[in-house]
Design brief:
This protein is an alpha+beta fold. It folds into 2 domains: 98 residues, Phosphorylase Kinase, domain 1; 222 residues, Alpha-Beta Complex (Aminoglycoside 3'-phosphotransferase, Chain: A, domain 2). The chain is built from 10 helices and 9 strands. Strand 2 and strand 3 form a beta hairpin. Helix 4 packs across helix 9, helix 6 packs antiparallel against helix 7 and helix 6 packs across helix 9. It starts with 21 loop residues before the first strand and ends in a 13-residue tail after the last helix.
């Protein structure tokens, strides 16, 4: 990722914006991208500029644009980052700011703040929004869209990490032998579940449903952001990601269970999961963690992220794995109960993997 941000450019020449408008970094920036709020004569404009910091290749966002174009017609009760067309009618612009070429997308400003993971009402609302999003995405035919690789293809997460079982060895001597053996054991457990995971209902999912990609106003979800990782994956993976992301800081304290219940309760209000999806939720949580770890290792090998990011993620992985060893069955039982007691709209599974 580029360390510096976007230099001043004449955005009004690209989009129908007031001449002389400026932009300032938003506090909620992404890990791979930059976000800016637009201003004119000191007053905020209802737009956000997204500058892709890890590439300037339109091919990498075509899937995202097609998915958002489909969702724009689904009457969802929350806003989405639907691109504002340029003066030429395009969804994005390639701009040279004098130091680099950037891929820019202009988005409507969506009000709200990221949810507080400890707020159960916000967690329930977010999971309910996820279920509604799943129902809308299930109507999108995935074939013909050049989607990112599925989560299960860990050898394709980053080009510098083609063999996951050798990934940690590339980090020696920074990584300890214990960490190498531990991560490889996790990868082997995921591999052993591969056939069962591939048989789960699949569809296009959000792929990164974390608090940082959700906006709320009180308990109401006002927007869902960042569809860059949307791909054809097990449907239940999004809920696994949400549980992991909402609960990791409270794992082992006992406070995580109210968050888990809120997420399960909210999701079950609008969508059901099959029994086999629920049973595999613990291994899907591990898959999410392994996928992020492969990405971090690749970024480290590309000199794009410090080794401490990998160290911290492995520490978190150990905590989550230990918690699942103790409470994974309790998690599955709780979700089974929510699926049985809720009365969501009829389930429309998309089918098995391609």
């Amino acid at each position: 990722m580029r360390e510096r941000g976007l230099a001043p450019v004449a955005l009004w020449q690209i989009w129908s914006l007031p001449e002389g408008c400026t932009f300032q970094p938003l506090e909620r920036g992404g890990y791979n991208n930059f976000l800016y709020r637009l201003y004119h004569e000191g007053r905020p404009l209802p737009f956000v500029l997204r500058a892709y910091g890890n590439h300037a290749n339109p091919r990498y966002i075509q899937h995202e644009l097609r998915i958002l174009a489909h969702l724009a017609h689904q009457a969802l009760p929350f806003a989405l980052p639907i691109p504002v067309p340029t003066r030429r009618g395009e969804a994005y612009a390639l701009v040279d700011d004098g130091q680099a070429v950037w891929l820019l997308v202009l988005l409507p400003f969506i009000g709200g703040a990221n949810p507080d993971p400890s707020n159960s009402a916000q967690a329930e609302g977010a999971a309910h929004a996820l279920a509604l999003l799943h129902r809308a995405l299930a109507t999108l035919e995935p074939y013909g869209i050049p989607l990112p690789q599925p989560y299960l293809e860990l050898g394709r997460v980053h080009p510098l990490v083609p063999e996951p079982l050798k990934a940690m060895q590339q980090l020696l001597p920074l990584a300890t032998a214990e960490d190498v053996a531990y991560v490889n054991a996790i990868l082997l457990r995921i591999e052993q579940a591969r056939a069962r995971i591939r048989r789960l209902p699949h569809q296009i999912i959000h792929g990164d449903f974390i608090p940082g990609n959700v906006l709320v106003e009180d308990a109401r979800v006002s927007g869902v952001l960042d569809f860059e990782n949307a791909a054809f994956n097990p449907r239940a993976l999004d809920l696994a990601i949400a549980i992991d992301a909402w609960c990791w800081d409270a794992i082992g304290s006992g406070a995580e269970w109210e968050r888990v219940r809120a997420l399960c309760r909210g999701y079950a209000r609008a969508q059901t999961l099959h029994a086999d999806e629920v049973e595999l939720l613990p291994v899907l949580i591990l898959l999410r963690n392994a996928h992020v770890l492969m990405h971090l290792i690749g970024r480290f090998l590309a000199n794009a992220t410090p080794y401490v990011d990998i160290e911290q993620w492995i520490v978190g992985l150990r905590r989550v794995d230990a918690w699942l060893a103790l409470h994974g069955r309790q998690l599955v039982t709780l979700l089974h109960q929510e699926m049985r007691t809720a009365s969501p709209a009829p389930d429309k599974p998309v089918g098995a993997d391609r």
